[in-house]
């Protein structure tokens, strides 16, 4: 406020000087009083003094060093303004001719003074003492001059200047209140902005901490589940003709159930990490629906339902594998929530033209849902009617994956449900530019929907135990710093390999490479090792030690997006814990057959 008052002293110097010169010249020409020059001199001294004080304060207290303004105290800021007001208050006594009241000259000066009062409102409205210092001396001088002469004209001049000054004071106070309110709102806005920025920072930090927590928890949980999956498969193998074989099967099923949850969480992490990249091309919906019927038909029939598809002749420019995953998740969701026991009879998959695209919907005849649940159905882990978190009713992740994949394909998702009449989950996708004949799935067909070393998307674990490595018994180097996991891997691998060299450090692995040389066929390396060396760097060092591109499979339990991205960008074959034995057998056989 004090700084702005000083800035007005500098900005109004020229207008005040011109006004004083104009008034002085006018009254010299009309009265030829020498007192006019005295008044001009006093005005010049007052204006120069006010300007000097303002410039001195600006030099002494620059804004960069004094952001809160110059020091407090009224004298440096009000004294020059008060002096200038007194000079203008003396103008009737020094500019007007002595003797009887000259109405015309007095009225002319009154108009000039009123103009000075009105023009000064922005300069003095910031501070109440400044309003008084400017208005009181100036108004008092003209009012006193009019009262001293008396008569109708004199008293009219006195009352007129008093009323006008009072109106100006009220206007200045109102403007001051408005400025104060505006400044307060600005401070409040800045405070809210700072608070919002702080809260945003806290949310980002909490989100990062949550991501790290879930990534660490997922990694730590995957380690024993990975070991359990392999050990249970080894136990099932050893108990092939034993009465305890069913118990071993149940242990394997329990491990697979936990693996389902971890795999679903991994899918979300991989999508968020950007490692799932769609490969769009023109695809006929009839081919997608045919593949969907082939994959999901047996599961629907096993649930006592019927799957009906109403294919259309539309063609989409999309990734068929990801679209199949979307529809499979929606059908799987319908199977869980529209069982025959609840009155459901069928699951209907339709495709209809909607605006510039196609709406693909999966409808069921289940119990439906209340409207308050619909906005949250595509959120992670949100479920309706499963307060006990029964895994048989789903994990609450499938629809979250659907939403993410739909966004990758340039589409959007939605749901419509009526209690007692069923639900319809849909995805809108854009049409292809051309509607001519197109091929079906071609090389991207994912049946039986299982990840490969080159495929970025894990779809469904394979639970068959008919795996074998008898085609070639490879010589395997295993590098994993987790003792329990390493033992489980070694026990599972031994019957299928000519040799399994289990190591826990890079130095031990390098020693095996030096000893075995060209006899090694493939390496199984954990991503997260003790120390600062990652599995990716360990593979590089071991290949340098071997002097060749020794085939390697990177095994990881990480789901943190950055680590998932790094694993895929390494160019190595990647498999995520808990590894299904069938998948590990396939990848190991393929790697062993790769020349290196």
Task: Give a quick precis of the structure.
With 596 residues, this protein is an alpha/beta fold. It is built from 18 helices and twelve strands.
Which class of secondary structure composition applies to the elements?
alpha/beta
Number of strands: 12
CATH topology of the largest domain: Heat Shock Protein 90
Name the beta content range. 5-15%
Explain what you see:
With 596 residues, this protein is α/β, with parallel strands linked by helices. It contains 18 helices and twelve strands. The strands form three sheets. It has a five-stranded mixed sheet with strand order 2-4-5-7-6, covered by helices on one side. Strands 9-8-10-11-12 form a five-stranded parallel sheet, with helices on both faces. The longest helix is centred in the N-terminal third of the chain and has 88 residues, at 151-238. It starts with a helix and ends with a helix. Mean pLDDT is 78; it is low at 435-468.
Q: How would you summarize the topology of this molecule?
A:
Elements: H1 2-11, H2 13-31, H3 35-60, H4 75-89, H5 91-95, H6 103-119, H7 121-124, H8 128-149, H9 151-238, H10 245-273, E1 281-284, H11 285-302, E2 306-310, E3 315-318, H12 320-337, E4 346-354, E5 357-363, H13 398-408, E6 412-418, E7 422-430, E8 475-479, H14 483-493, E9 499-503, H15 506-516, E10 522-526, H16 535-546, E11 552-556, H17 561-569, E12 573-576, H18 581-592
Helix pairs in contact: 1-3, 2-3, 3-4, 4-8, 6-9, 8-9, 9-10, 9-14, 10-13, 10-17, 11-12, 12-13, 15-16
């Amino acid at each position: 406020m004090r700084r702005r008052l000083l800035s007005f002293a500098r900005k109004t110097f020229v207008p005040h000087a011109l006004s004083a010169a104009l008034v002085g010249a006018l009254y010299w020409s009309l009265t030829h009083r020498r007192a006019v020059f005295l008044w001009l001199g006093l005005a010049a001294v007052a204006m120069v003094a006010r300007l000097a004080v303002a410039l001195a304060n600006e030099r002494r207290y620059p804004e960069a060093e004094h952001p809160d303004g110059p020091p407090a105290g009224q004298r440096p800021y009000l004294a020059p303004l008060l002096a200038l007001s007194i000079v203008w208050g003396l103008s009737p006594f020094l500019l007007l001719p002595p003797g009887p009241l000259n109405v015309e000259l007095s009225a002319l000066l009154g108009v000039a003074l009123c103009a000075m009062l009105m023009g000064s409102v922005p300069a003095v409205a910031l501070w109440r003492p400044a309003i008084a210092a400017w208005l009181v001396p100036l108004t008092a001088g003209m009012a006193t001059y009019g009262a001293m002469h008396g008569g109708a004209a004199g008293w009219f001049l006195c009352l007129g200047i008093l009323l006008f000054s009072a109106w100006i004071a009220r206007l200045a106070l109102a403007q001051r209140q408005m400025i104060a309110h505006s400044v307060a709102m600005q401070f409040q806005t800045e405070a809210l902005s700072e608070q919002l920025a702080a809260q945003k920072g806290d949310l980002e930090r909490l989100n990062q901490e949550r991501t790290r927590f879930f990534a660490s928890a997922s990694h730590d949980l995957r380690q024993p589940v990975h070991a359990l999956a392999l050990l249970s498969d080894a136990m099932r193998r050893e108990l092939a003709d034993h009465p305890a074989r069913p118990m071993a099967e149940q242990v394997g099923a329990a491990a697979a159930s936990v693996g389902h949850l971890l795999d679903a969480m991994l899918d979300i992490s991989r999508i968020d990490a950007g490692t799932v990249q769609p490969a769009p091309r023109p695809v006929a919906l009839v081919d997608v629906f045919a593949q969907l019927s082939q994959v999901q038909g047996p599961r629907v029939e096993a649930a006592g339902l019927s799957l009906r598809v109403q294919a259309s002749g539309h063609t989409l420019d999309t990734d068929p594998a990801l679209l199949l995953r979307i529809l499979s998740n929606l059908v799987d969701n319908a199977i869980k929530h529209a069982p025959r026991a609840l009155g459901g009879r069928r699951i209907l998959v339709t495709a209809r033209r909607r605006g510039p695209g196609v709406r693909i919907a999966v409808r069921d005849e289940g119990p439906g849902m209340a409207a308050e649940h619909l906005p949250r159905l595509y959120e992670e882990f949100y479920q309706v009617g499963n307060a006990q978190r029964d895994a048989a009713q789903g994990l609450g992740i499938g629809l979250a994956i659907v939403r993410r994949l739909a966004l990758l394909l340039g589409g959007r998702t939605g749901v419509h449900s009526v209690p007692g009449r069923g639900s319809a989950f849909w995805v809108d996708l854009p049409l292809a530019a051309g509607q001519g004949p197109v091929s079906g799935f071609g090389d991207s067909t994912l049946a039986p929907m299982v990840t490969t070393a080159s495929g970025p998307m894990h779809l469904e674990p394979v639970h068959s135990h008919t795996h074998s490595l008898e085609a070639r018994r490879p010589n395997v180097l295993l590098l994993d710093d987790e003792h329990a996991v390493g033992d489980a891997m070694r026990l599972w691998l031994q019957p299928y390999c000519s040799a399994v060299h289990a190591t826990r450090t890079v130095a031990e692995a390098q020693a095996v490479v030096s000893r075995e040389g060209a006899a090694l066929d493939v390496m199984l390396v954990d991503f997260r090792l003790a120390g600062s060396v990652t599995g990716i760097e360990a593979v590089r060092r071991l290949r340098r030690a071997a002097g060749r591109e020794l085939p390697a499979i990177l095994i990881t339990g990480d789901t943190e997006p950055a680590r998932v991205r790094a694993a895929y960008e390494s160019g190595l074959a990647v498999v995520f814990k808990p590894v299904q034995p069938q998948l590990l057998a396939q990848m190991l056989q393929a790697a062993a057959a790769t020349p290196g």
